[in-house]
Design goal:
It is a single chain. By secondary structure, this protein is of the alpha/beta class. Helices cover 46% and strands 22% of the residues. 39% of the residues are buried. The protein binds S-adenosylmethionine. S-adenosylmethionine binds next to helix 1 and helix 4.
Length: 226
């Protein structure tokens, strides 16, 4: 199943269950991500894989900036539009349908760029990183949130959760969430087994790369400058 199909049924329930299934950690991780982005109120930030616009809304509320949110799922964006309206941020946030692997923007168009849970879904993460870096103006921040792989004593607990807890909980919610519940653990494990995120970022010419593991390593934020 590809990412478009995976996310199509999730839009209306995404925020509630993403929070529940991450034990309430997910919004905290997004707030930390946004705190790493250096922009002024007159700047425009591109939020890639914006989904239901949670990061875009947080960015606009905290920084007062304009945000363009891009996602390939029409259904996730539909919920995002409702959330932006409910937050009264239609003047600050524009949501557009598009693919992170081929961004419809000129080089250096944005003051900063954020992306969330994206790289596990693209065919070529190194090429996608270069594409994301391309549209940021020189010196601008790039910041990412992704699930991490906990180490030490937290790892067996994480394995138990993604192998048993998440699939069972997902199945009790809906068929769409059952799919996510079984897919997520292997997807996170395989991604981190195959790619070194710092190498991917380095390869895209990103400098001053820093990272922080959150919630015992379950969440991972990277940030740097182009
Ligand atoms: C787990 S959701 C994250 C949504 C949101 N950023 C958040 O913090 O909740 C991942 C999003 O990535 C989007 N996505 C996956 N691959 C993409 C691609 N190649 N281009 C654009 N969006 C993509 C999916 O449609 C989905 O909305």
């Amino acid at each position: 199943m590809d990412a478009v199909e995976l996310f199509a049924p999730l839009g209306p329930t995404y925020d509630r269950y993403a929070r529940l299934l991450s034990f309430g950690q997910d919004p905290r991780w997004r707030r930390f991500l946004v705190s790493r982005v250096e922009v002024e109120a007159e700047d425009t930030v591109l939020d890639v894989a914006t989904g239901t616009a949670a990061v875009a809304i947080e960015l606009s509320k905290r920084r007062g900036c304009r945000v363009v949110g891009l996602d390939q799922s029409a259904e996730m964006l539909e919920t995002g539009r409702r959330r932006v309206e409910a937050a009264g941020l239609e003047d600050h946030i524009e949501l557009i349908h598009g693919n992170a692997e081929r961004l419809p923007f000129e080089d250096g168009s944005f003051a900063a760029l954020t992306f969330t849970y994206l790289l596990r879904y693209v065919a070529d993460p190194a090429a996608t990183m270069r594409e994301l870096a391309r549209v940021i103006r020189p010196g601008g921040t790039i910041a990412m949130l992704e699930f991490g792989l906990p180490s030490g004593l937290a790892r067996p607990a994480w394995e138990l959760y993604v192998r048993v807890g998440l699939p069972v909980l997902g199945a009790t919610i809906s068929p769409g969430w059952r799919e996510v519940g079984s897919f997520l653990g292997p997807s996170i494990r395989e991604f981190h087994g195959r790619y070194d995120l710092r190498e991917l970022w380095d390869g895209a010419g990103i400098k001053e790369i820093r990272s922080k593991r959150l919630s015992l390593g379950g969440g991972l934020v990277l940030w740097g400058r182009v």
